[in-house]
Amino acid sequence: MVWGLPVGWLEALACGAWARPFSNRGLFLDFDLSIRDPSREPFGRRTLFGSSVKESHRKFSAPRHGSLGFLPRKRSSRHRGKVKSFPKDDSSKPVHLTAFLGYKAGMTHIVREVDRPGSKVNKKEVVEAVTIVETPPMVIVGIVGYVETPRGLRTFKTIFAEHISDECKRRFYKNWHKSKKKAFTKYCKKWQDVDGKKQLERDFSSMKKYCQVIRVIAHTQMRLLPLRQKKAHLMEIQVNGGTVAEKLDWARERLEQQVPVNQVFGQDEMIDVIGVTKGKGYKGVTSRWHTKKLPRKTHRGLRKVACIGAWHPARVAFSVARAGQKGYHHRTEINKKIYKIGQGYLIKDGKLIKNNASTDYDLSDKSINPLGGFVHYGEVTNDFVMLKGCVVGTKKRVLTLRKSLLVQTKRRALEKIDLKFIDTTSKFGHGRFQTVEEKKAFMGPLKKDRIAKEEGA
Q1: What is the pLDDT of residues 9-33, one digit of tens each?
Q2: Which residues of 141-158 are buried (b: 16+ CB within 10 A; e: fewer)?
């Protein structure tokens, strides 16, 4: 015994035991009988009496959360999606428009047979989500000519039509009700007097001579939509194909004329959708940047970034995730496939034709509108575009549809779409019936029907 310790304690210390103060009265010895070198153990594991024990630890490297390519994440300055690049012009193609405006109505789903040889789903039916975008015909009210300069395009001449509707004129006023409604009253007289006509002819001839790019000014027709807004959306749409003279003649012929969506896009075409996303308001860093939540017992909150930077430089870097605005951002989504370009309601032989949702496999007489209409939108009565998947924005939001900038060569892009079934059940709750007639046949006469019949009698 040495100082009251068992014999051999020095040998035990040499064999891997370690000593620590146990109390004020003496020394406590802890023996590791496995006698292993901890430096040779795998990271994050320790050995106790020959058995393996996992310890929690964190990684010291991780890819950053959230893309810096979309900075600044602030509210968009514009409500309508802006086309920042139009497709490259090809003079060998016929003259055509490259973009169109539509309004998001809602979503539904379809059933189709996949035509993809070699795939597991080839010749099998699939159910896919689709978005309905209502696209009433747009009205062309102006022509703009551009000349190319070393610093980009520059406006050369702008010519407006003789007659412009009030819904278009509203776009030029902050408050239409309080205004004198004098927009274009002097300009339209150019089309009537002799000097004005001569000036317009000179403008057209100089545009043919000097301009390299021709765009038309077109607006939507709000009166055809189930929306409260009366002010039309106005945009410039580039005219591609043919020579400059052919483009100008094409645009001049269509001044004050309506252009339907089927003259711009085609079935099975891949297009781009430009718009402003659904606004979410002021959000914290976890929701806005998808950073990892801190452990549950973290002091002063856990939906935070633990370290926002070093002491020096004594500033917070722009790349550090912070709380702020989420949503209502301007975004461009490419490669949305057109599954169907539907025709609006029309009168034929004195009858209203609505069957724009029937297919070769589903011959029931039904429109694209679900029972009760699209939630928070209403009924789609005009031409519409059915796009695969979802698109940005809320219902009623204006969307810019643009022709693809890319040459589509992939098999998915070139696949022919043959719809078998379009769902038209109610989108409010659990929809069950495809048409009103189907619901009546199943439910039988209702109390409200009996009351209406008695009142009519």
Answers
A1: 445 444 444 444 444 444 444 444 4
A2: bbbbbbeeeeeeeeebbe
- Closest of 278, 281, 401, 409 to residue 334, by C-alpha: 401
- CATH architecture for residues 68-81+100-137+268-279+327-457: Beta Barrel (2.40)
CATH architecture of the domain with residue range 138-259: 2-Layer Sandwich (3.30)
Structure tokens at 46: 């320790």
Per-residue pLDDT tens digits for 401-440: 999 999 999 999 999 999 999 999 999 999 999 999 999 9
CATH 3.30.1430.10 residue ranges of the chain are 138-259
Torsion angle of alpha carbons 167, 168, 169, 175, nearest 10°? Answer: 60
Q: Using CB atoms within 10 A of its CB, is residue 391 exposed (0-12), middle (13-18) or buried (19+)?
A: buried
The C-alpha atoms of residue 385 and residue 235 are separated, in whole angstroms, by 19
Beta strand ranges found along 308-354 (DSSP E):
324-326, 330-342, 346-348, 351-353
Q: Is 253:234 a contact under the CB 8 Å cutoff?
A: no
